Automatic annotation (TrEMBL):
<keyword id="KW-0547">Nucleotide-binding</keyword>
<dbReference type="InterPro" id="IPR003593">
    <property type="entry name" value="AAA+_ATPase"/>
</dbReference>
<dbReference type="Pfam" id="PF00005">
    <property type="entry name" value="ABC_tran"/>
</dbReference>
<keyword id="KW-0067">ATP-binding</keyword>
<feature type="domain" description="ABC transporter">
    <location>
        <begin position="5"/>
        <end position="243"/>
    </location>
</feature>
<dbReference type="InterPro" id="IPR017871">
    <property type="entry name" value="ABC_transporter-like_CS"/>
</dbReference>
<dbReference type="InterPro" id="IPR050166">
    <property type="entry name" value="ABC_transporter_ATP-bind"/>
</dbReference>
<dbReference type="InterPro" id="IPR003439">
    <property type="entry name" value="ABC_transporter-like_ATP-bd"/>
</dbReference>
<protein>
    <submittedName>
        <fullName>ABC transporter ATP-binding protein</fullName>
    </submittedName>
</protein>
<keyword id="KW-0813">Transport</keyword>
<dbReference type="InterPro" id="IPR027417">
    <property type="entry name" value="P-loop_NTPase"/>
</dbReference>
<dbReference type="GO" id="GO:0005524">
    <property type="term" value="F:ATP binding"/>
</dbReference>
Amino acid sequence: MSGSVRLEGLSVSYGGTRRRNAGASGAAPVLDAIELEFASGSFTALLGPSGCGKSTVLNTVAGFVRPTAGRVTVAGTPVDGPGPDRGMVFQHYALFPWRTARGNVEFALKRLGLSRPERRRRALAALAEVGLAEGAEKHPAQLSGGMRQRVALARALAAEPEVLLMDEPFGALDALTRTRMQELLRELWQRTGTTVLFVTHDIDEALALADRVVVLGGSPGRVLADHALPAGPPDPDLRTLIARQLGSP
Ligand SMILES: Nc1ncnc2c1ncn2[C@@H]1O[C@H](COP(=O)(O)OP(=O)(O)OP(=O)(O)O)[C@@H](O)[C@H]1O
């Protein structure tokens, strides 16, 4: 149960969902009564056409967006804002350019109330875990795209979250770096047992990484299909089926 995530009748309409104007009405729903459960330690890819609400699902679990109706629970507790039990990695790293790699990771640990030496120790350990021990004192501008994304991953993992939310994290990387990052992520996931929700546009990436693929679609977004992936190499028939589901309205 520790990192289980449940979406219970989750509906989101922007305009009616933002904290400051909650209660506003009239906005078109983006998500409509989504029911999903992600087991603790599972790795789920969310696939779907652009605009169907994949990022909105992640942002709601992260606590950045509030549901219009329904709720999200993590380990049985309703989400009521961002928290250290959930780490997020975006496509565009979102690193502070004036901080070093270590400084970026340490900054993310501040809200945990850890001492300075402990933040430093954890930041260096997380950077070592993603293979970036050598780059710890470099600034983002001195790092390649793949290295920056390693920093972002270290930053998300350093707080030892129960849930890792990843929004097209490797979309901006070249093919070789992307494959390396996928391997690293699988390795970290197997080692840590974190629950992963991974948004991607790429069916092959979803099939290579996840143990489950949820296809979202429509407007408002809803669940079109939910596939448990068998262990072993990706199944070409399943790939064809998912491609068809992605093309459907
Ligand atoms: N902060 C926001 N305010 C208003 N509308 C938003 C906001 N964020 C997203 N939307 C709208 O909600 C819908 C779903 O967006 P979302 O980013 O969740 O989809 P997505 O499936 O992740 O898309 P993509 O694959 O293109 O990233 C879109 O119509 C988008 O314009």
